[in-house]
Specification:
Structural class: mainly alpha
Oligomer: single chain
Number of helices: 12
Number of strands: 0
CATH topology: MetI-like fold
Radius of gyration: 22 Å
Helix content: over 70%
Distance between the termini: 55 Å
CATH class: Mainly Alpha
CATH architecture: Orthogonal Bundle
């Protein structure tokens, strides 16, 4: 019996990628450059740069994404550092506690958060939106940083301490620079989903604040497939460029540029 090549085992995954990843992306690109009659046009892309409402929503989305990302870094980095420090965290249970919320569907967590604010009589707005964003995306900031800190060679810090550096100086001059790849991964995992989300802003602001994902959803639901696809393509381009820039930054850090 002829042995099956190892590459043959990759065939199911290749088929899956073609039908559920590549093909949808191709369809998004095709619809983006077509009008309602199927004719080729650049008007959908041009509309994004000329429509004031879309640009305003995009600006609000970027503002919320930046604020959410900064809050996640401020809260997530200390948490990741404590989790990776065996003197401060000696139990694996602590790590599991950060995973537990992710076992619950994000939409259910958002609805529960909105109901909690309603019970407390808190007016839904930007503050509640940021709270919900941080609550949902904080684990995605903690774990990339935690993984880098956990795998970091502790001898660098010990060498700096032997040379007379204070613990605070060791942290800022050694630990923080070496953990930047984890921070960059966390930023990518938090920033872009924040820009494109729509359910969280809808439930935690009563649709008072619209994000870029909401505009895409509204166009798709209104059967404006071409413009909705164009907006989705813009998001894909931004995500792609951000990923490339992050990859370049990681290579520089690995090469010793800090």
């Amino acid at each position: 019996m002829k042995a099956v090549k190892r590459s043959a085992w990759a065939l199911p995954y290749a088929i899956f990628l073609i039908f559920f990843v590549v093909l949808p992306l191709v369809l998004v690109a095709v619809y983006s450059f077509q009008d309602g009659s199927g004719r080729f046009t650049f008007s959908n892309i041009a509309k994004f740069f000329t429509d004031k409402d879309t640009l305003s929503t995009f600006a609000v989305s970027m503002e919320v994404a930046i604020e959410n990302t900064l809050l996640c870094i401020l809260l997530g980095y200390p948490a990741a550092w404590i989790l990776s420090n065996r003197k401060l965290n000696r139990s694996a249970v602590t790590i599991v506690l950060f995973i537990l919320p992710m076992w619950i569907n994000a939409l259910m967590r958002t609805l529960a958060t909105a109901e909690l604010f309603n019970m407390l009589g808190i007016t839904l707005g930007k503050g509640t939106l940021l709270f919900g964003m941080v609550y949902d995306y904080l684990p995605f900031m903690i774990y990339p940083i935690y993984n880098v800190l956990e795998k970091m060679d502790k001898s660098y810090g010990e060498a700096a301490a032997d040379l007379g550096a204070t613990p605070w100086r060791v942290f800022w001059k050694v630990t923080v620079p070496l953990s930047m790849p984890g921070v960059a991964s966390g930023v990518l995992m938090v920033f872009m989903p924040t820009v494109s989300t729509f359910a969280i802003s809808e439930f935690l602001t009563n649709n008072k604040i619209k994000l870029f994902g909401t505009i895409i959803q509204e166009n798709i639901n209104s059967s404006m497939w071409n413009y909705g696809a164009a907006l989705a393509l813009v998001m894909l381009v931004i995500i792609g460029l951000t990923t490339l820039l992050q990859g370049k930054g990681d290579e520089e850090l690995e090469g010793g540029v800090i």
